[in-house]
Amino acid sequence: MNMRRLPLSLLSLLLCLAACRPSQSELSLEGRPIGEILKDLNSTDELRKNRALDQLRRSGTNAFPTLVALLESKAGAVPGPTKTPNNLAPHSLPSLADTLPATRRSYAVGAFSALGTNASAALPLLLPVLASPENAPVASMAMVRLGPDGVTAVVQAVSSDQPRIRAAASSAILSLRPSDAPALPVLLNALGSTNAPTIIAAAGALGKIGADADRVVPALLRLLDHATTDVRIGAITGLRDFGPLAAPATPELLKTVRSSEEVVRVASATALWGIAPEVARREGIENPLTGSGDSSSRSKAGK
């Protein structure tokens, strides 16, 4: 077509249509741009949120490359053609064009979290992202939501020789919650690691999950004789988070509360008041959180 011979009005119309046409590089799921679906996934409207989640689930693995690319969103990315999933430019997702890189990363983590084990096939795509110190925080948070395999990969990253990766992996492990109970075998196995940060993260996560006390409490108790102080404190903290379910640990905590190390004494006293307050009171152990031997004094101290 000879553009010079077109009337000015027709030329303007064609240019407008070209400019307004949706980017061909934006993935659509069931006719909806993925950016819109991710926004709905963060909606306060439960109907919209559930519809978005259903669309993501039905998409299978189609959305994974885009979600991984969003995890790597950077400020000031230069617009350009999308050659590979990991080079996804912000402009290629017009429905997310008004969001900051941090928001796009958050959307991706939220999507992986919502998909859970349904997104476990994305692990091979996420491993290279986890290996980047810059992207490890978002990658590790996404991966621990994918079930035991994802948790295993992040646990291994706690022993990385890169400080930022270690910190990110530890933080992600400590973000586990009761719904992550299927990861218990992975975490229990990690207690046998020779890497202290790995043990500490696993112990903390086991306490936060708070499941299967019959298996976990004895495993944490075995760490109270560990040579590393931080590991002992991590185990004590994990026991504390079990509350009364960790009552079998009371005799050992009554020993560690007499430790020569102040940090161990404080951690043990705090744990005792959370696990067996009547024992702590009877033994005259001060509650470090209230500065008193009376568990009811916390409310008084806050006045």
Give a structural overview:
The structure is a single chain. The chain is 56% helix and 1% strand. The protein is mainly alpha-helical and 303 residues long. The protein has a two-stranded antiparallel sheet with strand order 1-2. The longest helix is centred in the middle third of the chain and has 15 residues, at 101-115. The radius of gyration is 26 Å and the shape is elongated. The N and C termini lie far apart (80 Å).
Write a brief structural summary.
The chain is mainly alpha-helical. 56% of the residues lie in helices and 1% in strands. The chain has a domain at 179-303: Leucine-rich Repeat Variant (Alpha Horseshoe), CATH 1.25.10.10.
Secondary-structure map with pairings?
Layout: H1 8-20, E1 28-29, E2 32-33, H2 34-41, H3 46-58, H4 64-71, H5 101-115, H6 123-130, H7 136-143, H8 148-157, H9 163-173, H10 184-190, H11 196-209, H12 213-221, H13 229-242, H14 250-256, H15 262-275, H16 277-282, H17 297-301
Helix pairs in contact: 2-3, 4-5, 5-7, 6-7, 7-9, 8-9, 8-10, 9-11, 10-11, 11-13, 12-13, 13-15, 14-15
List its salient traits.
1% strand, disordered C terminus, two-stranded antiparallel ribbon
